[in-house]
Amino acid sequence: MKKQVVVLIAVLCIISMSAAIFVGCDKDASAVIKGVDGVKNIAIDNNAKTIAFDVDCFIDSLSLSYFKVDKGVSVSAYYDEAKTQAVGNELPLKLGENIFFVEASSKKSSTFYKVSVNRELPSSNVDETKTVKSIEVAQAKDTYTVGESYSQGVLKVTYTDGSIDYLTLMSRMVSGFDTSS
Length: 181
Fold this sequence. Notes:
Elements: H1 2-25, E1 35-36, E2 40-45, E3 50-55, E4 61-63, E5 67-68, E6 74-78, E7 90-92, E8 96-105, E9 110-119, E10 132-139, E11 153-159, E12 164-169
Parallel strand pairs: 3-9
Antiparallel strand pairs: 1-5, 2-3, 4-7, 6-8, 8-9, 10-11, 11-12
């Protein structure tokens, strides 16, 4: 009798674990945007379905690949809320506020966001002159696999007056990067 109870408990445990694994395999990736690489002052509101952030004045477009999503989630962009005018893979940015509509889609769900991108205006202080003392790589990835997208780096620019600027290197600023073969 004890042997039968032990076998029954073991069978129930196996069935329970198998069900948990089966349910876990059917889990859909979360169709939400979790962040955007290389931007400043980001605010994501998943309840209101809005995203707002700033970019430097020298950034004239933003790749959809910079939107952080779960594996299995795709990102599309549109000029209009009705999704009749697709943007493509690069969002063109004019100076000041830019409005786009971005959709994160998985197999079973999608989330539609209104995205506000503020491309900062260039500094109006034209009388200021700085002399560069040094430029060094502050952060960079130097090894890629075939098909992997560019992971931006950061340059540290030190001036003779002791001030320092950190510049984000976007894919459009780098020539010769190609991991397609």
